[in-house]
Design brief:
The protein is an all-alpha fold and 61 residues long. It contains 3 helices and no strands. The N and C termini lie far apart (29 Å).
């Protein structure tokens, strides 16, 4: 049996903001550092999570 987790758009947006606060960067700063391979392992985890959140949010339109 598989498990499905339901999350609202508002919950995803709030999680995204919390993650950015956690690493102390803006969306643009994180993307810029990811593009130059300058993220540590924790920041890279946040980057991948935010990419997943953005994918889900874009699919919700």
């Amino acid at each position: 049996m598989s498990t499905m987790i339901r999350t609202t758009r508002e919950e995803l947006e709030a999680q995204r903001e919390r993650l950015l606060e956690e690493v102390g960067m803006t969306d643009g700063q994180l993307a810029e550092r990811a593009a130059s391979y300058s993220l540590n392992s924790d920041e890279l985890d946040v980057w991948h999570t935010i990419q997943g959140i953005d994918y889900l949010l874009d699919g919700d339109r």
